[in-house]
Amino acid sequence: MRRNNSEKKFKVSVFHKEFGDHFRHGHEEEYKKLYEKIISVCIKSNFDPTLFNIEKNFKNKIEKFGLDFKGSLLPPSSCEVLVEKKRDVLLIIKTGTRTSFVGQNIHIIFVAKDDYSVEKIIKSLEKIKDLKGLREGTYYDYISKTDFDEKLAKLSPQGKILDDKKNEEIFISLYELQNRDLVKQVKGMTGFPLTKDEIREKIKFDKKDELLKQLINKDIFSKTYRFQCKNCERTLYSMDFKIREDAQKALESGSFICPNNKCRAKQQAATIAEVFFPTEMALRVSGGSWLEKLVDLELKKYTPNVWSCRVFENDEFDNVFVFRDKTTVVECKDTSFGQKDLYNTIVKARNIEANKIIVVTTENLHNNVSMQIKKVNENEEDIKITVINGSEEEIIKKIGFFFERVNRDYVSGLFESRYLRSYSPTRYLRRR
């Protein structure tokens, strides 16, 4: 089903609770009592159970929440589906799927409009003794997080830069392409600091003076004072002064020789010039770290299970995250992403048993790389690749679309999966 862009968006919120030994196999009756309490709380909160079949009315009810169905719609035998009429909220209660345990864990899933708050009903559910301490996220996300906290505990050198709070202002400023370009151009012209006049002459930016002042205040550019020949305006690179007065005193107490051998001035004279150059940290961040940090911040808007700039065995990972029972590796490139990069990323992803790869790049992919990714997605069952490219604004938007699609697929899969257990507490409740 294709969604009309004019339709209101729905967000998915998932909570889970894992249970102890008292819900092992042989204690179905206790589990049914718990399930009955959950349904009772939901009904008191204005949720109505839907028809427990796959009739057209049922399908229409859940499709309007933006869910896509690629396969046959199956009876959700381990789920209870409820709808809150007034605010159009879909609530799904899903039992655990491990066959050795009956109800080892439970998921409470909300599909609701963006402005709907689940806090009130979650607090009501937590009043049930066995549901106290509901965790946000899926049960398997929680298990995977425990595993990756250990596997990906070591920060890469880049990770130490990302985690340092002192660098936050630099990262925020360099998310903007204009600022990154200014850093690269000033550094790339001569390899030496430039005066304001040189920057005005050689760099094509509007409001350069204002921009430069802002970046100096954020430790992206450093400013020093040097001697400058009055005739050819070449600066003397062998002496730097942090304070103008110190430079002036040094000039008055000695003589000046222009460093330009072609300068023909009969009388060598100098003035004091301000010169600017990017800080070492700004060069590192603008060289690619900014993208890893941008992706890190965006991922954390959707899941707390994120590990950025980490090392596992001999592999360095830009970003890894766990979301809706899937592990995803993110490879960031502020340059072109080639076939060798693709091969290395697939190997790294398989080394940590990741299910998905996201390639984030600021440039378009070469046709050969696009074709290779297409082949992987068509022929490999264990891994799928998504490409996100464009400007920083486009990258942020596309990351949001990725999570929206994963959420829809996750909920839709509850009604399509052929591995749902036949045990259903709700069928027991309805027979009573």
Kindly describe this structure.
Helix 1 packs across helix 15 and helix 6 (168-174) crosses helix 11. The chain is of the alpha+beta class. A six-stranded antiparallel beta sheet has the order 2-3-4-5-1-6. A six-stranded mixed beta sheet has the order 7-11-12-13-14-15, sandwiched between helices. Strands 8-10-9 form a three-stranded antiparallel beta sheet. The longest helix is centred in the last third of the chain and has 25 residues, at 392-416. It has three domains: 10-136, TATA-Binding Protein, CATH 3.30.310; 149-166 and 287-400, Trna Endonuclease, Chain: A, domain 1; 169-282, no CATH class. It is 41% helix and 22% strand. A hairpin with a 4-residue loop joins strand 3 and strand 4. It is elongated and about 100 Å long. The model is unreliable at 1-7, 97-103 and 418-432 (pLDDT under 50). It has helices spanning 28-44, 56-63, 119-125, 139-151, 157-163, 168-174, 177-190, 196-202, 208-217, 244-252, 280-299, 339-351, 367-379, 392-416, 425-431; strands at residues 10-18, 47-49, 79-84, 89-95, 105-113, 135-136, 154-155, 194-195, 221-229, 270-278, 306-312, 315-323, 326-333, 356-361, 384-389. It is built from 15 helices and 15 strands.
